[in-house]
User: Fold Transketolase C-terminal domain-containing protein from Candidatus Thalassospirochaeta sargassi.
Amino acid sequence: MKTSDMFQTDRKLLKKGIYKLLEIKDSDIRLLTLMQGVKAVDRGIHSGGALSAILPLTAVYYGGYIDYDLKDPSRVGQDMFILSKGHAVAAMASVYTDLGFFKSELLENSRSVESLLNGHPGPLLPGVHIATGPLGQGIAAAQGLAMAGKSQSNFNVFAITGDGELQEGVVWEAIMHAPQARLDNLCMLVDKNEGQLDNHTKLLFSMDNIPGQIESFGWRTFEVDGTSYSSVCAALDQFQNAPKDGRPTAIICNSTKGFGSFSSDLNRHKITLGEDEYLNEKTLQENRRDVRMNSFLQFAEELKQAGKDDVLNELKNRARYMNLEIKKDFVSGITAVPFAGKVPARNKKINYNPADIPAYTADEKVAASDVIKSCMKVFAKDNRVVSVDSDLGSTSGLEAGISSIDESRAINIGIAESNMMCVGESYAALGYNAWVSTFCPFFDWKVLRRIAISQQERVEAIASPDGWLSKGHGLDLTFLATAPNFETKTNGATHMGNDDTIVYGGIGGLNIIDVSCPNQQVAIMKWIMEGNKGLNYVRIMRAASGVLYPAGIDFEYGKAYQPYGNGASDVNFVSSGRGVHEAIAAAELLKKKDIEVSVYDMPSFDEKTITELLSSKGLTVIAEQNNGFIYEQLGRLILKTGDTGLLKNCVAVNANDKEGNFHYIHSATYDQLLDKYQLTPKDLATTAENNLKG
Assistant:
């Protein structure tokens, strides 16, 4: 036999042995997954999708395709994994426990109040970077990680999705964009198990041409038998060895819901696992493991008899990589040493020269986009600053500013706001100071909420002495929102942000900031660039505005500013954004009538200042060019404190309708809107006078 033929024979024998080892590991993962169900606080488990996901998940992690770092799961440069179909968390938790990301005790009592293991994965769990569960968003986040991977150390990103999940729109936003970004380091495995929640035996509508649909957007696609390790691994080999031609890879794994289980009850989306059912399934799974183990041991003996010691020794090495140990008559599992302690801290402070930051004089009128453009030219010299626009780069200033320094970090995702947000989150998860931008009402609430959950879990993991994350591992992600308040003219109600703060104000951990002045905008950006500021929703005016504050002012979240007056007065106007300018003009009118007036700017809600104002003898007029965010926050404060007397000397003027209902703003000029909602300086002065007399 020729040397080349001998090599090919040995290679085939090695692969055959690896597949047999993967099948043994498959059984071990299934047994761990079953155990989670019976020992969960509610004995519940998303069995159907978890069990069908075990094979591709095991292939990726034990087949030698992914480079992960157990000593530092946060290290940038290692390969990344996203479980987009987050319902399969039990399968992933089994693998992560076996690998050593966390202790096996974590698999017990899951979904209890004291457990880190919930119904869907998130950064509470060591090694998990993105919270998933709402379907479709995980693959978009994986695409964002792959984008960062292309620009850094060219790491690979793997994601497992489901076929039911492909019914979500954001999936296709990512699938369309990934080839455009030339993400040949992205591998998406589709667990095509032909079922979903309402019907676990059939998709609610046919998706029979998934390979062709994905390929049509420029992906390299493989359709494989998702019940066979040799088939799935052959496709992963193709991804690993493929030429770097810019095409991402999709592997469609044809399977069935609950694949690998014996009981048909386990095929459903979610079940409550009874003790008898568990014991029966456990026995059958253990028997299958014995069969698989004996098949491998017989194969090993045949190798030994054939003098294939090199192949056998390599299989022993591969077994150890899979946390398996080959003995004479048994293949046992090796207990991994679990990751302990915290990952290294990150320094999130952006480096820049303060002397280069723009400063504006009192006689200037400046557009917020120009402020942002000028500031980003300074901040982006630190390569940890990145922006993602969605076909509105010309209005945010982000793209123009950052691209002048490094256009690879000035990303325009196209008309795909949900995808934009997921990509921004991915960069933030890697330690970037990330900015995304679109019209105020165009941010996807579902995505925004999931990102906020990721951030909350990160904060909890940082704060906990036993958590895996350390300081600097929170998300620094800014949502730059254009067209807030009365910024309209050619736009209609669908584009106007008069209700956005009311909606997003209910999202935990999101800082809402309404900008009134160019120098204040600079101060806010400097504050964000200090790092560790979390999620910030910053509303910027589109038209140029005058300067209210001197250059060099500092910004503090939760603090009001007083651009006019000397403390609590006879009349105290409270506003934000462009409304502050109108309040100052109203104050000038009242001053001519010898009425003492102060104006308070609340870019973020200030409980202390509003309480002091409402406790004073003066009248407080809360004037807002939106549906009354400050006024609503005041209502929450009153409910919290029980002090209803705070409303005694308070008047609210905003964009609600005459009955006080939330209301959408239609197209008009700025002056027309001020007049319609009685928010002109003259109207505000009259409102103040009438209530003083009353």
